[in-house]
């Protein structure tokens, strides 16, 4: 109870509001906290950080909810997640095509610890939590860089796909062992031999070397069968 009183004083200072109003706010956080398995103090501390940054109470409540969900899933402290700027920029669960939602936890960089997938436009964002901070591990940046991941040859690979133009598809795969340690890359693509003739012949390339259609088809079949898309 003592801790909660401290958070009330803290929130009062952040909002400049009355004890009664802040008490009401905190009992609301109590419900949030129960749903999320957090403590009311954790939630209140998050809220007072947002309020100090000049957010309204309504915005703060939304932000607290999103960042607490993130921090609980990513297992980081809520104080640190409020300093992660991208959360304020993300449109979470609005149902719009470009909104984001919390996805699976997957070991995307093969180091034995799970990263967090935020599903969203162009494959969303893959987050890595370490040293109590959240890092952007990979992000889908557009139609020419659609993010997904593949479990291939016993490891997880990040994949960027481009399928924007008729007769042209390109795939870039990256394998990490730890988020800072890129250990392998793979590039394969198909393109028109004559780019003005969309009905014409195509050529297929793997890591800079031309391969046959059969080889290309076999490679694509194996990879696409193991691909997990994270666009919602
Ligand atoms: Ca990992």
Which descriptors would you attach to this protein?
232 residues, alpha+beta, 2 domains, 4-stranded antiparallel beta sheet, 11 strands, binds calcium ion
Structural write-up:
This protein folds into 2 domains: 2-86, no CATH class; 90-229, no CATH class. It has 7 helices and 11 strands. It has helices at residues 2-15, 19-36, 40-52, 57-74, 78-82, 86-89, 213-225; strands at 101-106, 115-119, 125-130, 133-139, 146-152, 155-162, 169-176, 182-192, 202-206, 209-211, 227-229. It has a 7-stranded antiparallel beta sheet, with helices on one face. Strands 1-2-3-4 form a 4-stranded antiparallel beta sheet, with helices on one face. Helix 1 (2-15) packs across helix 2 and helix 1 (2-15) runs parallel beside helix 3. Bound molecules: calcium ion (CA).
Short characterization:
37% of the residues lie in helices and 30% in strands. The chain is α+β, with helices and mostly antiparallel strands and 232 residues long. A hairpin with an 8-residue loop joins strand 1 and strand 2.
Tell me what portion of residues adopts beta-strand conformation. 25-35%
Instruction: Count helical runs.
Output: 7
Structural class: alpha+beta
Instruction: Give the overall pLDDT as a whole number.
Output: 81
Question: What's the arrangement of secondary structure elements?
Answer:
Elements: H1 2-15, H2 19-36, H3 40-52, H4 57-74, H5 78-82, H6 86-89, E1 101-106, E2 115-119, E3 125-130, E4 133-139, E5 146-152, E6 155-162, E7 169-176, E8 182-192, E9 202-206, E10 209-211, H7 213-225, E11 227-229
Antiparallel strand pairs: 1-2, 2-3, 3-4, 5-6, 5-11, 6-7, 7-8, 8-9, 9-10
Helix pairs in contact: 1-2, 1-3, 2-3, 3-4
Calcium ion is lined by residues 107-109, 111, 113-115.
